[in-house]
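User: quick one, fold this
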Amino acid sequence: MNVHIPVFTIGALAKASGVTTPTIRYYEEIGLIPKARRSPSGQRYYEDADFWRLTFIRQCRDFGFGIEQVRLLLDLSISRERDCIETRDIAQAHLDEVRQKLDELRALEERLAGFVDRCNEACAGGPGTNCVIFKDLSSKPRPCCGGE
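Assistant:
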């Protein structure tokens, strides 16, 4: 019995997975995906397993996981011996990082809103050289939360 395994060229794999061809080559180079098989003429070709792996990597990257985290998740995704708690711990650590970044972005948002509000109150419509935003940007940052 012959099982047909679909074959993708690098271009077809890129289009199907939503990853660029240079990215596919890079992932091969760093070992996230296996080196492509080659046709007698040297053209790369890939199979369904490569498509699955590349799609998994793209999804992980879309969630902001770093390359080494992706490497760990890939290893965990095929391991029957390792506990899924390891996967949860990686996701939890990343969630903690995302929440920290959100806190930082909220503080940044408050500062920027303050710049805009001060400009609207003090100088909007006047000469650009007198804009209070320039003064605010060149002064020592003030605490953004609770201390004002």
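User: anything notable?
Assistant: The longest strand covers residues 44-46.
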